[in-house]
Design goal:
Blueprint (H helix, E strand, L loop, with lengths): L1 E2 L12 E5 L4 E3 L6 E3 L14 E3 L11 E5 L9 E6 L3 E4 L3 E7 L2 E4 L5 E4 L1 E2 L8 E3 L7 E2 L3 E6 L8 E4 L3 E6 L2 E2 L5 E4 L10 E5 L10 E6 L3 E4 L3 E4 L5 E2 L4 E4 L5 E7 L2 E6 L4 E4 L6 E3 L1
Antiparallel strand pairs: 1-2, 2-4, 3-5, 6-7, 7-9, 8-11, 9-10, 12-14, 13-15, 15-17, 16-19, 17-18, 20-21, 21-23, 22-25, 23-24, 26-27, 26-29, 27-28
GO biological process, one term: single fertilization
Function: May be involved in the fusion of the spermatozoa with the oocyte during fertilization.
Membrane topology: Single-pass membrane protein
């Protein structure tokens, strides 16, 4: 609030002063806007609650959407956030501000609208195709499945990437399209070791092979490798080194009973006179 008239240096008992609301505020009944000088030369207190901010018009929820007032009110300085239900996307500004213009309050833009999500056909790929390739418009969550064409050569095409794509947003597919190409990893040879699983004549994309070392050798690296889309084994094929791999032993006691725990998987029950830890 603010004084309507210029203040005087001195007021007599019984004199009154008139208050008014500042710009951007309006008077709210039944609050008093007049203060009176009391016999003890004090003013009868008045409340600022008599003036409230000018409000913007309440916004309507868009079809298939809703408006949320972030600040819980619609007076100037407030914000309105718009959103759409699943399967629809927002066209327009998602956030509006209630602004003061002169003595009135207005939203700083038109309300957005919600429109149905659709997708254009997904990208075509070399050496492959996808289902429903005769459709021009895909609805929200509709999906296609990619497959690779038969390869006239000795090695088949491998599908690299996601085989299933679905319409996840306005003109947006769930992921980039896959790729169809020949993936051929070299024979998985392990000197001083042997292959124990994943036998095949040809090793294509995601072929998996498992190894073990011969007696007297230990393995450095992973015992399982996978043929990657770059036609290399990942992780690299391990190495079999001669000797015994260094292992740590830990002794656990409970009374006179001792459990000797070896590295990773070996467990032995033994009895020792005292606790110990040693390496070999």
């Amino acid at each position: 609030m603010e004084l309507k008239d210029e203040p005087k240096p001195y007021y007599e008992v019984g004199e009154t002063i008139q208050y008014g609301c500042k710009k951007g505020y309006v008077y709210l009944l039944p609050f008093s806007m007049v203060a009176t000088c009391e016999p003890n030369h004090t003013w009868v207190p008045i409340s600022d609650d008599g003036c409230v901010k000018v409000k913007c018009a309440r916004l309507q929820d868009p079809s298939f959407g809703q408006v949320h007032y972030i600040d819980g009110k619609i007076s100037w300085g407030s914000r309105a956030q718009f959103s759409c239900v699943e399967g629809y996307y927002l066209v327009g500004t998602p956030l509006l501000h209630c602004m003061l213009k002169g003595d009135e309050a207005y939203w700083d833009g038109p309300s957005p609208r919600c429109e149905k999500i659709y997708c254009l056909p997904p990208p075509k790929i070399k050496n492959g195709t996808y289902t429903f390739n005769d459709i021009d418009i895909f609805q929200y969550r509709e999906a296609v499945i990619y497959t690779c064409d038969p390869n006239p050569g000795p090695d088949k095409f491998s599908l690299i990437g996601m085989s299933v794509l679905f319409c996840s947003g306005y003109k947006t597919w769930s992921s980039k399209p896959p790729e169809c190409k020949v993936v051929k990893c070299p024979l998985p040879l392990l000197p001083n070791g042997r292959q124990v699983a994943g036998f095949a004549r040809r090793f294509s994309y995601q072929s998996t092979v498992t190894f073990e070392c011969e007696v007297g050798f230990y393995m450095q690296g992973s015992d399982t490798v996978v043929c990657s889309d770059s036609s290399i084994w990942e992780p690299p094929i391990p190495v079999c080194l001669q000797g015994i791999k260094k292992m740590s032993y830990f002794l656990y006691f409970s009374g006179s009973f001792c459990l000797l725990a070896c590295f990773k998987i070996y467990l032995f029950d033994v009895r020792f006179p005292k606790s110990n830890h040693f390496d070999t």
